[in-house]
Amino acid sequence: MDLLFGFLYRGDVIKDYDVVRLTRAFPEKGVAAGAQGTVLMTFDDPPGYIIEIVDSEGQTVAELDVRPDDVELVISYSDRFIIQRSRKYAPAKKGM
User: Fold this and answer.
1) Which site among 4, 20, 64, 95 is 20 to 30 Å from 10 CA-CA?
2) From CA 89, how far away is CA 91, in angstroms rounded?
3) 19-57 pLDDT, tens digit each
4) What pTM does this model have?
């Protein structure tokens, strides 16, 4: 485990609400490899996830039931919280 922003960071542990990238295509659902989605639910036995893929307007394109090797972590929900809080408390830049 590494220390990141004063919090324990557990590597690529994927949790609910994390953003993931598909490592393979799902042509039957019209989704290409590399598409990003949000984890809606995680499962332990057997391990897997339900992820939602949306288009640029926020409309659901597909909900996929995937295995751990079908996805890779892009950003964790807890990291987004840390980033948002750091932006909220960061000093404003001159000229903005």
Assistant:
1) 64
2) 6
3) 999 999 999 999 999 999 999 999 998 999 999 999 989
4) 0.70
